[in-house]
Design a protein that fits this description.
about 150 residues, Four Helix Bundle (Hemerythrin (Met), subunit A), 7 helices, about 5% strand, globular
Length: about 150
């Protein structure tokens, strides 16, 4: 997990000051059927909210933990990220993810092995979910930077 956490912290540090420097025209440009770069960042904030809950709840709820999906499109629309100030949106994303990094640093080896049942009934563990979260974050950061 140490390598995953280092990668995660690097992504946060590299991008917290980068996102607000992107031109508003580039941040807000939408292509048909796609989110703008600003909306992608908002999606990452939504993902952080949900995963922060997952990464903490799993420690005190009945096992195996039942993963609850969320409606990503509706959340991006309802939160109106397209209209949000980029500095505020970046700070929201950054603070939520800093808390996730804090949790990742102190999660026990036992907790990393806690089982999680997905909506399709497949089973993963917390280690996989945390690692996948960082990969998901990196994928969308690359979209914003492209």
């Amino acid at each position: 997990m140490e390598d995953v956490i280092l990668k995660f912290e690097k992504l946060l540090k590299e991008n917290v000051n980068y996102f607000p420097e992107i031109s508003p025209n580039i941040l807000e440009e939408r292509k048909p059927g796609k989110w703008s770069k600003k909306e992608i960042l908002g999606h990452l904030a939504d993902s952080a909210v949900h995963n922060l809950v997952r990464f903490t709840e799993i420690n005190y709820t009945e096992k195996p933990y039942k993963h609850r999906p969320y409606n990503q499109i509706d959340l991006v629309n309802l939160n109106q990220y397209q209209e949000m100030d980029i500095d505020e949106l970046t700070q929201l994303w950054f603070v939520l993810n800093n808390q996730i990094a804090r949790i990742m640093k102190f999660v026990t080896e036992e907790a990393l092995n806690y089982k999680i049942v997905l909506s399709d009934e497949s089973v993963i563990d917390l280690r996989f979910l945390m690692t996948d979260y960082v990969e998901h974050l990196e994928h969308h950061i690359n979209q914003i930077k492209s």
